[in-house]
Amino acid sequence: MSQEVALIHEAAEAVETTGGLGTLGINVKIFLAQLVNFTIVLLVLWRWAYRPIVKLLEDRQKKVEKSLQDAADIEKRVVSLEEERKSILSQAKHEAHVVLEKVQTDAEVRRVELLAKAKEEVSQVVHQGKVQLQAEKEAMLRETRQEIVNLAIESARKILEESISEKKSQALAEEVIEKMS
């Protein structure tokens, strides 16, 4: 037991010289040296490693946010352009429909005008034909009358020249009528 007492006594002395931390197995001088070294390493890492890494991460985050914002803006622009394209297509279809209706209306008006003009020309041709036929008919009637007159004169002359009988004058009259037919 004396050895045990000696050990206890040594431990008590060590506690008195190192303080209360010595009982935990901590040497205060070494602890302070390690604390100073840790602080220096921490400051060096803070200054040359942590700040640049944090700055790099912030820059990267800003780029990602900017890219997302640009993508959202592009998406909005694409939607806007699609709506504008649909609007332009709709307007173009409407204008094409209006132009088509106008062309059809103009074509119908032109067709009616051409039909009326053709009817008028046909009417004029028919009228001219009738006028020409009437003129030819009148000319033929005049010629026929003239021939009848000439035949009548010729018959009368023959009748008077021959002083013929009634029978002969009847035959001559029938002959003249046959010639006229």
UniProtKB/TrEMBL annotation:
List the residue ranges forming a coiled coil, or say none: 57-91
Q: Which residues cross the membrane?
A: 30-50
Annotated membrane topology: Single-pass membrane protein
Tell me the GO molecular function terms. Answer: proton-transporting ATP synthase activity, rotational mechanism; proton-transporting ATPase activity, rotational mechanism
Q: Where does it live in the cell?
A: Cell membrane; Endomembrane system
GO CC annotation: endomembrane system; plasma membrane; proton-transporting ATP synthase complex
> Which controlled-vocabulary keywords does the entry list?
ATP synthesis, Cell membrane, CF(0), Coiled coil, Hydrogen ion transport, Ion transport, Membrane, Transmembrane, Transmembrane helix, Transport
Q: Which domain of life is it from?
A: Bacteria
Q: Which CDD domains match?
A: ATP-synt_Fo_b (cd06503)
Function noted in UniProt: F(1)F(0) ATP synthase produces ATP from ADP in the presence of a proton or sodium gradient. F-type ATPases consist of two structural domains, F(1) containing the extramembraneous catalytic core and F(0) containing the membrane proton channel, linked together by a central stalk and a peripheral stalk. During catalysis, ATP synthesis in the catalytic domain of F(1) is coupled via a rotary mechanism of the central stalk subunits to proton translocation. Component of the F(0) channel, it forms part of the peripheral stalk, linking F(1) to F(0).
Family per record: Belongs to the ATPase B chain family.
- Subunit note: F-type ATPases have 2 components, F(1) - the catalytic core - and F(0) - the membrane proton channel. F(1) has five subunits: alpha(3), beta(3), gamma(1), delta(1), epsilon(1). F(0) has three main subunits: a(1), b(2) and c(10-14). The alpha and beta chains form an alternating ring which encloses part of the gamma chain. F(1) is attached to F(0) by a central stalk formed by the gamma and epsilon chains, while a peripheral stalk is formed by the delta and b chains.
Supply the name of the protein.
Answer: ATP synthase subunit b
Give the organism's phylogenetic lineage.
Bacteria, Candidatus Uhriibacteriota
What gene name is given for the protein in this entry? Answer: atpF
